[in-house]
Amino acid sequence: MKNLIALSLILSLLFTSAYSLISCAGGEPVPEPAPAPEPSDNDTVSVIKPPYRDYGRGTVDFGELEYRRPDITAISDGILAVAADIADGTLGFDAEVERIESIEDGYITVVSMYTLAELGNMKNSSDAFWHAEYEYMSVGYSRFTDALEAMFVACAESENRERFENEYFGYSLEDYADGEIYTERAVELLSREAELEAEYSALSTSSIEITYLGKTDTVDNILKGLRESYGADSAIYASAYGDCMELYYEEESRMGGELFLELLSLRALIADELGYDSYTDYAYEIMGHDYSARDMMGLLSDMKDSVYPVFSRLYTRVFNGYFRDADFGQLDTASALNTLYALFGELDPGISEAYSYMLQHNLYDVGDAQSGRFDGSFTTYIESNSSPYLFVTNGGTLTDYATLAHEFGHFYDGYVNFGVDASLDVAEISSQGLELLTVERLSGVLTEEEHRLLEYYETYSILNVLLIQGFFSAFEHYVYKLEYGEINRERVNEAVARASELIFGSAIYNDLSAVLIPHTVLYPHYVQSYCTSAISALEIYFLECDTEGAGIGVYTQLVLRDGEYGLGYSEMLEAVGLTSPFKDGALRGVCDRIHYQILGSHYFKEQEEGNGVGAA
């Protein structure tokens, strides 16, 4: 059954922070079912609702989805019973398949309710109901995935393994042939890791307490009292707000740093327990990187000589002055969504269909930043609804076009592939690629000045992504080399400085606070995919710039994958004719082209000819 194709992916993501585990006391009463969180729409312009089409997916409007707390223990026990029957080996293949199919509804329920609980918590982490449900689902998920692993092991060790692979699952069970991956000790360590990750995720103005003018309370409560006393528009409140936020960031950095140091030590133990030489090796497997850490460090080592000089020159000669006087304008959510609806209709029929589908079924939440709301953007997948779901915290300016297109790239990927991901590096091309293609096509929608501003913003952003995310990635590669007993603030700060020297040529960053972002704390070795995919996305963008439709053709071919779900990142690039970012000169080539797009000259060619272009 196709619904179980994602099982191995769920297992591989077991203890990443996409499914964070947090402690929850047992014996609490189960609350009454609540409706799923509904998309907010306070815009004066209405979002276009395309004519409804029956896509044959069984998708319903997001507002009709109802969250109900599943009995994870009972469902997990049912999966374990199936595993035991398969291990017994007396049923025969057909009966064993029937037993697996019998737990499919339970699997879909748990995965789907987890997603809805996570969405509710992301929309408002201060909502007691959604926070409690997310906590319940997170804690129970470890038992659930452990049961799934037991079933996979039973299938892998069965005499019918080959039939399971070819006739049922459609992929290899090799990873489970040697028995369970997670020992009892490993599950204990991984659960503790998830608890710490959840503690970090909960750090916000609604949870962190500060002391201001003799009063100790959460930042939100203190600011609320000040607004009531002096008025939100008063100079006194403005000054107090700045003081409170400074205290908040200091406390957030202190608490976040302590949690991260504990996580680093814990991850060293996890790698050892699971039999890996380092946590980097474990994270590479979890993230699906089909290249080596040595390959990645080679790419990162080239940043200082390829990206940094081009970025510096463009910043000093173009971006700094341009952005200083630029007006990014105001853009309301509905207008942005409607503009992209029209643009995608001209861009590609498949992309347009997926976008219409999203609008028809209200499978999005695009809202302003506010206390308790996740201050970021992501796309997830609701298994029971056979639908992706897009979440964006916007800024209300022209840059929202880029953010929306980026996340919709993930949505489109999830739509056409029914939530089954390729590697993380490929998945990020789906987002960054569509973002760049969208900005290129907005030339027919925006004024010439607006489009130039957005193009400059995109160019600045992608170079910044290569450098900053490259810096974070280099730090991860250095810090996860530390042995358990070596992990302390001083050694971690040394790793920060080494990474800074590698990317920027000097230790301009040398303290742990410089790398405390959600991705480095919660998703080890994720950020490097922003670098690899950015290079591939730029190649797609340049193809489109040279020949209309060429870049879009490669992009859709990459996302559709023609059913080749087993291909890794490097194989996918080869299949669609893109260059590996690890090939000599690949990074320098895209940076040189960026320089040419903005200033009309080839940076490295002129530098090599001795024309002094290399100076900023």
Task: Itemize the secondary structure elements and their pairings.
Blueprint: H1 7-12, E1 34-35, E2 66-67, H2 72-88, H3 93-102, H4 104-123, H5 128-156, H6 161-169, H7 184-201, E3 209-212, E4 215-218, H8 219-230, H9 235-273, H10 279-287, H11 293-301, H12 303-306, H13 308-325, H14 333-347, H15 349-360, E5 364-368, E6 377-382, E7 387-394, H16 400-416, H17 424-441, H18 448-479, H19 489-504, H20 518-522, H21 528-546, H22 550-560, H23 569-576, H24 586-599, H25 603-608
Parallel strand pairs: 5-7
Antiparallel strand pairs: 1-2, 3-4, 6-7
Helix pairs in contact: 2-5, 4-5, 7-9, 8-9, 9-10, 13-18, 14-15, 14-16, 15-16, 16-17, 17-21, 17-22, 18-19, 18-21, 21-22, 21-24
What does this protein look like?
This protein folds into three domains: 2-33 and 68-182, no CATH class; 204-273; 304-608, Neurolysin, domain 3 (Orthogonal Bundle). The protein is mainly alpha-helical and 616 residues long. The protein contains 25 helices and seven strands. Helix content is 61%, strand content 5%. The N and C termini lie far apart (58 Å). Helix 9 crosses helix 10 and helix 21 (528-546) packs across helix 22.
